[in-house]
Specification:
By secondary structure, this protein is α/β, with parallel strands linked by helices. It has helices at residues 4-14, 155-161, 195-198, 205-208, 246-259, 274-281, 285-288, 307-318, 330-348; strands spanning 41-43, 49-52, 62-65, 71-74, 81-84, 90-103, 106-120, 123-131, 136-138, 141-147, 175-176, 186-188, 235-240, 263-270, 297-303, 324-326. The protein has two domains: 37-216, Pectate Lyase C-like (3 Solenoid); 230-348, Alpha-Beta Plaits.
């Protein structure tokens, strides 16, 4: 007894007109749009301004190499980006899902967001960075870092497409694989550095069509002080729990407190378990345990004299209907901040 389907295929073949070849089968992977690597590469350019508009890279890998005195802008999300052997270039990269690797470059100025960042065999770079993990430099000198500060309408969606949180940014927590005794191969840019003085906006008509801003108040990534020396010995931890308006509430809270003269030190978005909540929230943990199942929490550290009272006032006045954790006192805040960020860094492998 033969298989019904094999008999049908045999009958179809016998009914095929003589001289007509059987068409090859079509598979879904055969119908994918072919990718030309040249569309995702800038190579051997000199004295040019070039770029890619939103939607033109769409998560592909990108390569930049052997460019001299060029302005390069990638206004889209990528899988990974490698930058090799470039000199005196300005480079902007939209969110990169994986790694950005810069090798054998000098006198370049960059603004970029990524999951992992590594520099090797480079000298004299300025990098305005958003990085989810600890940035690494190796065999490099005179590398300066600042906090990523950029806006265009598509950028927030590109962060989501790249799987990056705007609140996970360890831009100033640099690890040097090859330190030199008595020398520092990296430093932080001045806090008042104007990003357009380092990474200017594009001037070509095509790229000017992207509605850009480098104002700190409009930046998609909150501008934090990172590991700069704190102005005060008083900090306050505020934790927002997942909900429909969590990101908007976090932005509003940052705007309010920065407007009152406090400093945003660091931010984090991370999932918490019950045991984490017990350690961070202590006696208040039972109030927040049911909220942990809704998704990751967003934590913000503010610094400045009177930070605890200032945070409590703003939360009570503006967010009275929203449940948040706020440090209760100056003394408690020190433990709150240390407990939360130690747990978060361990969970994220930092």
């Amino acid at each position: 007894m033969g298989c019904f389907f094999s008999k049908r295929r045999k009958a179809e073949k016998e009914s095929q007109p003589e001289g007509e070849e059987e068409r090859p089968k079509q598979y879904s992977w055969d119908q994918r749009e072919k990718v030309d690597p040249k569309d995702y590469m800038f190579s051997g350019l000199k004295d040019e301004t070039v770029g890619r508009l939103p939607g033109k890279v769409a998560g592909q890998q990108f390569l930049i190499q052997d460019c001299d005195n060029c302005n390069i802008y990638i206004f889209d999300h990528s899988a990974t980006v490698t930058i090799d052997d470039c000199t005196n270039c300005v480079i902007f990269l939209g969110p990169v899902k994986g790694s950005v690797f810069i090798r054998n470059c000098r006198d370049c100025k960059c603004a970029l967001a990524c999951q992992q960042f590594r520099v090797r065999d480079c000298r004299k770079l300025e990098v305005f960075l958003c990085c989810a993990t600890q940035p690494i430099i190796e065999s490099s000198t005179n590398i300066k870092f600042g906090c990523f500060q950029w806006y265009y309408p598509e950028l927030a969606f590109q962060f989501k497409d790249a799987g990056l949180s705007i609140f996970n940014n360890t831009w100033s927590n640099i690890h040097d694989f090859t330190p030199v005794s008595g020398e520092l191969n990296w430093s932080l840019l001045p806090e008042d550095a104007v990003i357009q003085d380092h990474v200017p906006l594009p001037t070509t008509e095509e790229l000017k069509a992207v509605r850009l801003s480098t104002e700190a108040s409009r930046s998609i990534v909150p501008v934090s002080r990172g590991q700069r020396q704190k102005n005060s010995d008083e900090s306050c931890l505020v934790v927002l729990f997942a909900g429909d308006y969590t990101i908007a509430n976090a932005r509003k809270l940052i705007d309010e407190l920065v407007g009152k003269g406090f400093f945003l030190v660091q931010t984090k978005e991370v999932s918490m378990k019950a045991e984490d909540a017990q350690r961070v929230f202590r006696e208040k943990a039972p109030d927040f345990l049911p909220l942990l199942n809704k998704g990751p929490v967003i934590a913000l550290e503010f610094n400045g004299d009177g930070a605890v009272e200032g945070c409590q006032l703003v939360v009570n006045e503006i967010f009275s209907g929203t449940k948040m954790f706020v440090s209760e006192s100056k003394d408690a805040a020190l433990g709150d901040v240390d407990s939360f960020y130690n747990f978060a860094d361990i969970q994220m492998g930092i």
